[in-house]
Amino acid sequence: MTSKPVIAVVGGGIGGLAAAAFLHRAGLPCTVYEQAKELKEVGAGLVLAPNLARLLRQLGVLEAMTATAVRLDVGWEFRRWQDGTVLSAEDLRESCADLYGEHTYTAHRADLLAALASAVPPSALRLGKRCVSVTDGTLRFEDGERVTADVVIGADGVHSVVRAAFVEAAAPVYSGLCAFRALVPASSAPEPARRPAQTLWIGPGHHLVHYPISAGKLVNVVAFAPAGGYETESWTATASLEEFLAEFEGWDPRLRELIRAGGRPGRWALLDQAPLRRWSHGPVTLLGDAAHPMFPFFGQGAAQSVEDAAVLARCLASGAEPAEALRRYEAVRMPRTTRLQEASHGRAHVNHLPDGPEQRARDAAFAGRDPLRDNGWIYGYDAGSDPG
Ligand SMILES: Cc1cc2nc3c(=O)[nH]c(=O)nc-3n(C[C@H](O)[C@H](O)[C@H](O)COP(=O)(O)OP(=O)(O)OC[C@H]3O[C@@H](n4cnc5c(N)ncnc54)[C@H](O)[C@@H]3O)c2cc1C
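That is the input. Now the predicted structure with flavin-adenine dinucleotide docked in place:
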């Protein structure tokens, strides 16, 4: 293709803005259509692993992020549910940057979204534009507007309208797990939760993760439990504090203190989707959770969305015809995101073992493990230089 393609991105979340930022950096203009009237993120945190930090550096936004992101000293600190016994912990202070050239950080999702937005020209963003259907390269919006593009990128999350245009792409299903989340003022949090550490308390059928964000002013808490009949997948749904505490009855008192300090929690059901066989049909492709929603047990969903964005922008900038560029993008990205979807899935079983011989064997194995090196295939990867 000799002239620049017209590129439409549906969704202005982490993946959609990252796509716009990488496309812009590659000299390819695009328009992002976001349904919300303003760019916003839910009040929650996320881990910026080295593979994500590396891409934020390439976009020139990592430095701004580190004003509020917390650099972790300790990662993968697994504790026993009843009494907080440390089963294993990883010292990240020097080793993470030595191994992978970047540190691991934790951050507020809104800060990551703002950092990505700063790398996108404001004229590329159209807010309050809810896409209702996609046919070939034509998007139809709720307000009646129609837009035709040479390339359509569906970055519209787990309930993707763009994905629904693919006849064979089944919607994700309920996983039987739900998550509670809360942000706790650090001043009210018990000591273990105030350290620059990512801690995972694991126990029968449940686990709870916490780490500080927002320059250490807040502690992000997310906890996983059986969903029962709960099937609401929404970042804005809430539960009662009593429901949250009941799930963690009998757990270490410091953990219950942390839960109490968070007040009314958010709650949502985790969705599950087997890896798709294709992401692209003609001029339309998918990116981020629309393409490969994954359990959050490796803390890699946002990172994979940004990796998708980096590879897709390079494929489109290669000068290949759009269909060929999308085919190449899919071929580069699918094996990695499929592996992460499967690995994240397997973690639910391991983290939630009931006390007994299998749990004791797991705990003994944890003591000898080195997740920082074991996960080298995740953290060492540079999507910005993958030859795709
Ligand atoms: C509990 C939990 C913890 C997590 N922790 C981590 C972590 O530590 N590290 C990590 O890397 N990842 C983490 N993730 C995963 C990460 O949050 C997601 O993978 C990431 O947000 C996906 O980004 P996305 O842009 O694909 O989708 P989304 O963030 O869902 O964004 C989709 C956007 O599209 C818009 N949209 C939707 N439909 C339409 C439409 N029809 N028209 C126009 N716009 C539309 C939405 O408004 C939204 O802005 C976690 C996820 C969960 C659930």
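The mean pLDDT is 93.
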